[in-house]
Amino acid sequence: MTIITVCTTCRNEATRGSKDGSPTGEAFLETVQAAAKDAPVKLRGVACLMGCAHGCNTAISAEGKMTYVLGRFDGTEEDAQALVEYATLYSENEKGVVPFRQWPQGVKGRFVSRVPPLD
């Protein structure tokens, strides 16, 4: 099962300098949940993915597959749609490696790191 993990304590670039109001990540989790209602993914929120400089951080993972950390999202519906579209392609690939030509435009430039699967 592919899991999208959304950092609930993240703030996007526009709100990062302020501690006023709720973190952008909380709202982004809800937006991703709405976008993923029919997708073959599971969602979870977690406090802090330690990518504060990137804001609205997420991770896409599954057992035996590469894990991808993405950030620099604003938390919009378009961001959520692109993330879910990429996660769906990831879920369909045996190793979780989606060819660049298939990446949704909205995830290009958002990758922070990738982590090899645990043996």
TrEMBL record:
<protein>
    <submittedName>
        <fullName>Predicted metal-binding protein</fullName>
    </submittedName>
</protein>
<dbReference type="InterPro" id="IPR012863">
    <property type="entry name" value="DUF1636"/>
</dbReference>
<dbReference type="Pfam" id="PF07845">
    <property type="entry name" value="DUF1636"/>
</dbReference>
